[in-house]
Amino acid sequence: MPILQPIVNIAELLYRKGITDVVVSPGSRSAPLTLAVARHPHLRVRVMADERSAGFVALGMAMQSRRPVAVICTSGSAVYNLAPAVVEAFFGQVPLLLLTADRPHEWLYQQDGQTINQVGIFGSHVKRSYDLPADYTHPDTRWFIDRCVNEAVNLSQWHPAGPVHINVPLREPFYPGSDEPFLAEPVRVIDTCPTELTLPTDTWRDLMTEWEQSERTLIAVGQIPYDPALLAVLRKLSDDMGIPVVGEIVSQIARNEVFITRSDTFLSGLDEQTGQSLQPTLLLTIGNSFLTRNLKTFLRQFPAHRHWHIQPATDRINDSLQSLTKLIPADPLSFLEKLYSDLDYQRFLRGDDDDEPHAFLHRWQTLDRQATRLIEKTLRPASGQLTDWSAVQVILEHLPEQSLLHLANSMPVRYANLCGLAEEKQIRVSANRGVSGIDGCLSTAVGAALMSDKLVTLLIGDVAFFYDRNALWSAPVPPNLRIVLLNNDSGHIFRMIDGPGRQPELETYFETPHGYTAQNTADDAKLVYTHCDALDTLTTLLPDFFQTSPSARLLEITTDKRVNQDQFVAYKMQIRNLQANKAN
């Protein structure tokens, strides 16, 4: 057996376990792993020189495919550079398989180059960490390697999905000789059979009793992948049962005549009487984290008497709203479809066509429509004036139907949430909202574009863009990527937050102006570059910008941060005036 045969076999096992994509950062110690995947006929391998960017590119690929993507890097500090993407994958519940090359452990603390303690390096931010043997002479070690890889790939996909780490100590020689075969042997695949969670009949009966006892029911949707079937059943529950469904842009909840999408506006500065009128007796939550503070604050300040959270696994209690009474281990779609079916049947038996149960829904919808008018009023004075917010509004209106939208953190995702998306466009939205950092937003969008034949639009601010320029280093950039860069020459969000916004050190220590433009970066990456500094120009540019082309495109929009601030302050003032008028 060639000395590297167990490493070669890893590539075949990845493929047999359903992994088709691998992101590799070049290195010497990792050469056996790299050659194994590069020479495999059925694995697609992407090379990213920067490990931090590589991790986020793999994250974006896995977010779109909902399958594990493998990442390979060399030993030492290279491994630590994966950490930001690892923690985002962990809290965002995205499956990644991290294969990190290492020195044999006897060389640790011996001042050998690129040698650090990599065993368990990601701590509690991976689902599990494996450490493979460096010697393969005994048959048990080869069995152990195969078992660990099988288990790691399975574990990355079990709910909640997440990153799994395999540390791979490697001895020289790293490269096969010219006459040495480099072909995988037959490997043994160990699959785990899927199961379906079914609630016992007595449990379901108790849940239906609680439902019947609740006068005002609210469904709040956190961050979830796009699922038309789930959106359809949510709409039926709202339409037919009079249940408000509140969500945000990262919840895939788009604007229509039913869903509640403006909660961040009308829940701001809520008075006690209005808050109590919106308070649910039963709250159902699905999905991961919520984006906006106002929605979370409302649900904590006016807690439901009963709160069900529906998720497939029960290993952790998600009680972020501090009101949870039942954790229901179920697939949200299956649970809600059965719920609707049973409620619809009961309504049929009762001959129930009374509109009174819809009063709670109408209360939420009325405030939602008022908030829509308030936002339109805020943007109206800026008609003809280019601001970050008005630019986002125009961009979202021009997005091609059924395309993908990736939202960078900080202000872009918040502006997009305030604007919302029209339901008929069927836009799939993604964002790094597991940890919500600005690092890796560009790389994640590159990864998403690599895994889709649809147009992928990234909406990103200047600090996040320049922080992650290495995403564009490893050519070619996928031609279906469209980057919309909002460049206000600062960390704009700090001007919007009351605390730092009032400090004399705002610009120097928080905003950190830079004076950069993206033109040189676009030229280096061979992107088609366009600049815009006027709103009417933006409207005329976008149809061509979103056309299919052989190269990726970057549209840089420059705005004045002080004008942006004035517009946001005016928006906040209108909310305060609206609340004051209600109180009077």
TrEMBL record:
Molecular function terms, GO-annotated: 2-succinyl-5-enolpyruvyl-6-hydroxy-3-cyclohexene-1-carboxylic-acid synthase activity; magnesium ion binding; manganese ion binding; thiamine pyrophosphate binding
Enzyme class: transferase
InterPro entries attached to this UniProt entry: MenaQ_synth_MenD, MenD_middle, THDP-binding, Thiamin_PyroP_enz_TPP-bd_dom
Ranges where the Thiamine pyrophosphate enzyme N-terminal TPP-binding domain occurs: 10-119
Annotated catalysed reactions: isochorismate + 2-oxoglutarate + H(+) = 5-enolpyruvoyl-6-hydroxy-2-succinyl-cyclohex-3-ene-1-carboxylate + CO2
Pfam families: TPP_enzyme_M_2, TPP_enzyme_N
Protein's pathway: Quinol/quinone metabolism; 1,4-dihydroxy-2-naphthoate biosynthesis; 1,4-dihydroxy-2-naphthoate from chorismate: step 2/7; Quinol/quinone metabolism; menaquinone biosynthesis
The keyword NAD is assigned to this record: no
Key words, A-Z: Magnesium, Manganese, Menaquinone biosynthesis, Metal-binding, Thiamine pyrophosphate, Transferase
Cofactor: Mg(2+); Mn(2+); thiamine diphosphate
GO biological process: menaquinone biosynthetic process
Cofactor note: Binds 1 thiamine pyrophosphate per subunit.
EC number: 2.2.1.9
Domain Menaquinone biosynthesis protein MenD middle: 206-405
HAMAP family the UniProt entry points to: MenD
Subunit structure, as described in the record: Homodimer.
Similarity field: Belongs to the TPP enzyme family. MenD subfamily.
Function statement: Catalyzes the thiamine diphosphate-dependent decarboxylation of 2-oxoglutarate and the subsequent addition of the resulting succinic semialdehyde-thiamine pyrophosphate anion to isochorismate to yield 2-succinyl-5-enolpyruvyl-6-hydroxy-3-cyclohexene-1-carboxylate (SEPHCHC).
Protein name from the UniProt record: 2-succinyl-5-enolpyruvyl-6-hydroxy-3-cyclohexene-1-carboxylate synthase
Organism: Spirosoma radiotolerans
